[in-house]
Specification:
The protein is an all-alpha fold. It has 2 domains: 1-128, no CATH class; 145-202, no CATH class. 82% of the residues lie in helices and 0% in strands. It contains 7 helices and no strands. α2 (43-67) runs antiparallel to α3 (74-144), α3 (74-144) packs antiparallel against α7 and α4 (150-163) packs across α7 (186-196). The longest helix is centred in the middle third of the chain and has 71 residues, at 74-144. The radius of gyration is 37 Å and the shape is rod-shaped. 18% of the residues are buried.
Length: 202
């Protein structure tokens, strides 16, 4: 499989294009990570609510422990205090925990969206063209390989002379048809190979 053209300027362009695409993906990933961390810091609110609820519940439990030893009514009062702590502070602590989990999930969702949507859009525009270029280069390399066979070189030269635009032919030879008729195939083979982004070895 041929990934990059042989022609230096085309190779440089393809490498630069690939590098720019990778850099853009890395930048989008960093941006998504930043959004995730920025939103995830809001979990401190839920943590604060949880801690406040736990403190209230601990206060009721501590009071219950102190009155638990009082004869006759101590157990009932202690139970009431513990129930009150669970009903107030416990519910608040649970709400804080749920809020913290929701903010964490929201941070993951937003960070993923910030990365995935632009990355998918970028790749949908870049990847098909890049894969097409690789396919063309690979196919051209197979078709244009002459392997030192003069007959194959003649056929490739004919393909160049009859298929390439005149301006492209004239960049390589002053008389493409004359070269073909005289058996001078090198310039024509070079022309069609360069048009595909390759260099055919002599």
């Amino acid at each position: 499989m041929r990934i990059y053209p042989d022609i230096p300027i085309r190779r440089a362009n393809a490498v630069a294009h690939d590098a720019a695409t990778l850099a853009a993906l890395v930048l989008l990933a960093l941006l998504g990570l930043w959004v995730y961390h920025a939103v995830d810091q809001l979990t401190i609110l839920g943590r604060g609510v949880h801690d406040a609820g736990t403190a209230v519940q601990d206060g009721f439990s501590s009071a219950a422990d102190k009155v638990d030893g009082v004869p006759l009514v101590g157990g009932s009062i202690a139970g009431g205090l513990r129930d009150a702590g669970s009903a107030t502070g416990g519910n608040v602590a649970d709400a804080g925990t749920r809020g913290e989990q929701r903010v964490h999930r929201l941070a993951l969702l937003l960070g993923g969206i910030v990365f995935l949507l632009p990355a998918a859009l970028l790749l949908s525009r870049v990847l098909p063209r890049r894969l097409q270029q690789i396919r063309v280069l690979t196919n051209a390399e197979q078709v244009l390989a002459t392997g030192g066979d003069d007959e194959r070189r003649r056929l490739v030269a004919m393909r160049a002379a009859f298929a390439l635009p005149y301006a492209t032919l004239l960049e390589h030879t002053r008389d493409p048809i004359g070269d073909l008729a005289a058996g001078r195939y090198d310039a024509l083979v070079d022309a069609i190979a360069e048009d595909a982004g390759l260099r055919v070895p002599r």
